[in-house]
Design a protein that fits this description.
transmembrane, Heat Shock Protein 90, HATPase_dom, two-stranded antiparallel sheet, 7 strands, Sig_transdc_His_kin-like_C, kinase, cell membrane
């Protein structure tokens, strides 16, 4: 009887997890659909205006930079959503392997070099260069890319972004990303669909989806993540397992 109850509890937990993912997926799709409808309407207006010649061309062409930005925002949001689906809805297995934290930092800074240069930011790494974690290399790279891009977005020109790592001695790597930007007034809904969509220090916009995806994907790697923020500093903190044990199906 006890074994039957354990099996029932396990099935109930799996049902709740699936319902959670379904609810999140529905809200993500709703958000994407809303954004795509908006940009589609704007593009249609531009095409119709050029075709009918009812609006001065200078005005139409003046909208193109903003439309280009909207297209890029939607592209990034769609890519984030696809990563989420790839690892959750499709049940993609994790590929656990040794990952050098410092080498990963160097690779990500190089990947974001253009964004960093545009704001003349200074990136610095503090901690042991030899630290290695057992994790999914692709997934941890995706997660940290989104967090670093977020720090760049809200940093002022000439600011500093600091990545600090340390081994807490309890099979955990503590990693923090600190920027000297505009700060976040309310961090309680930062990983929620109900949170506001913030604009970066140079007017950069976003879909509001990237950090939601980060939170969900981090949970797959048993990573705890939280944020603290003041008027001129925001800190993302991650507790990353040094030895990752995948859940085995029984």
């Amino acid at each position: 009887m006890e074994e039957v109850q354990k099996e029932l509890d396990k099935l109930q937990q799996e049902k709740e997890e699936l319902q959670h993912q379904l609810d999140l997926s529905k809200r993500a799709l709703s958000l994407l659909a809303h954004d795509i409808r908006g940009i589609s309407s704007n593009l249609k207006w531009v095409v119709d205006s050029l075709d009918n010649k009812e609006v001065p061309q200078d005005l139409v062409f003046g909208m193109l930079p903003e439309l280009k930005t909207e297209v890029e925002i939607n592209r990034q949001a769609t890519e984030n959503a696809l990563q989420w689906v790839k690892y959750t809805a499709h049940g993609k297995g994790l590929n656990i392997e040794p990952v050098s934290v410092y080498n990963l930092y160097v690779a990500l800074v190089e990947r974001l070099r253009v964004l960093i240069s545009e704001k003349q930011l200074r990136f610095q790494y503090i901690g042991d260069h030899s630290l290695t974690i057992q994790t999914d290399a692709y997934l941890i790279s995706f997660i940290l890319t989104q967090i670093l891009a977020n720090s760049i977005k809200y940093s002022y020109n000439g600011g500093t972004v600091t990545v600090s790592v340390m081994n807490d001695g309890r099979d955990k790597i503590k990693l923090s990303v600190v920027d000297q930007g505009m700060g976040i007034e309310d961090t309680t809904k930062l990983f929620s669909f109900d949170g506001p969509r913030f604009t970066g220090t140079q007017g950069e916009k976003g879909s509001g989806l990237s950090l939601i995806v980060v939170k969900e994907l981090a949970s797959l790697l048993a990573i705890d993540i939280w944020v603290t923020s003041e008027a001129s500093e925001t800190k993302f903190e991650l507790n990353i397992p040094n030895t990752f044990l995948q859940k085995q199906n029984t």
